[in-house]
Design brief:
The protein has 265 residues and is α/β, with parallel strands linked by helices. The protein has 13 helices and eight strands. β7, α12 and β8 form a beta-alpha-beta unit. α5 packs antiparallel against α6, α7 crosses α9 and α11 packs across α12. The longest helix has 18 residues.
């Protein structure tokens, strides 16, 4: 029996407002894998409100997301943090509510981070992209700890033609973004992202990848301030072979550094 693959793409606020190329790349990857992809009208998943303790606002936003994505077979998110909010925290948010908890549980159960869905659900074993250069990968806290996503992005990156991937030291350590954490504790956040940026440059890779745009914006800002010749991109863009958008953190008119920087020994 054929498996239905009607996918609702939860674009996320950051992708929609700052990096729409990630959304287009995600759609391309999903369609190439045989999915029918739709992007229903949607709003914030409620994660910032939830993390700040504003459960009332978080519930209102979550109710809109649940209602929008109930008709789909799967919900796919190009962000571990937003996927984690839906999959892990929506059931918690509506616990004990006889009307909303069953709906929250049902949507949570069919929600996946992009690479997790491609590998674990669709069985995708490789991509057809070609991206010459050297890359390293940062595991976001939410992808790794809430969703258990670690091997899936690396499995797909290993099949990108002409791309070599060097493991990042302490790749599982937080970059210091943490949503509102970087605003509430800027000094601590800056020290954390400083260590992360140093680890990135130590690999000698000219390309930093991750599946969470918040992390990428944070690290890209630090790398730029440090003058590091490292491109920062969402993994979906590389897996789709779509590098038309400028590296994250750089204006369209700015010349991009090469992703094949010589390794520093």
């Amino acid at each position: 029996m054929a498996v239905s693959k009607r996918v609702g793409l939860l674009v996320t606020c950051l992708v929609d407002l700052i990096r729409p190329s990630v959304g287009f790349a995600a759609v391309g990857l999903l369609e190439h894998a045989g999915c029918t992809v739709e992007v229903p009208p949607q709003t914030c998943c409620g994660q910032p409100a939830f993390n700040s303790g504003d459960r009332a606002t978080a519930r209102k936003l979550a109710e809109q997301v649940i209602s929008a994505f109930e008709p789909f077979d799967y919900v796919v998110v190009p962000s571990g943090s937003c996927a984690g909010q839906v999959r892990v925290h929506y059931p918690e948010l509506f616990q004990g509510d006889p009307n909303w908890q069953p709906r929250a549980d049902a949507v949570a159960a069919k929600t996946y981070e992009l690479t997790q869905f491609l590998v674990d659900v669709l069985g995708v074993s490789g991509v057809e992209a070609r991206v010459p250069g050297a890359a390293t990968y940062h595991d976001s806290c939410s992808s790794l700890r809430e969703l258990g996503v670690r091997l899936q992005p690396r499995k797909l990156l290993a099949t990108v033609e002409s791309l070599s991937v060097t493991e990042l030291a302490d790749s599982d350590v937080c970059c210091g973004f943490g949503g509102t954490f970087c605003v509430k504790y800027p000094e601590i956040s800056d020290r954390m992202v400083g260590k992360k940026a140093a680890a990135v440059t130590a690999t000698g890779a000219g390309l930093l990848l991750s599946a969470d745009l918040g992390c990428l914006l944070n690290i890209a800002g630090k790398l730029l301030r440090d003058g590091a010749a490292v491109q920062v991109r969402h993994i979906a863009e590389v897996l789709a072979g779509d590098l038309d958008a400028p590296p994250i953190g750089m204006p369209a008119a700015a010349p991009a550094p090469t992703p094949t920087a010589e390794a520093k020994r």
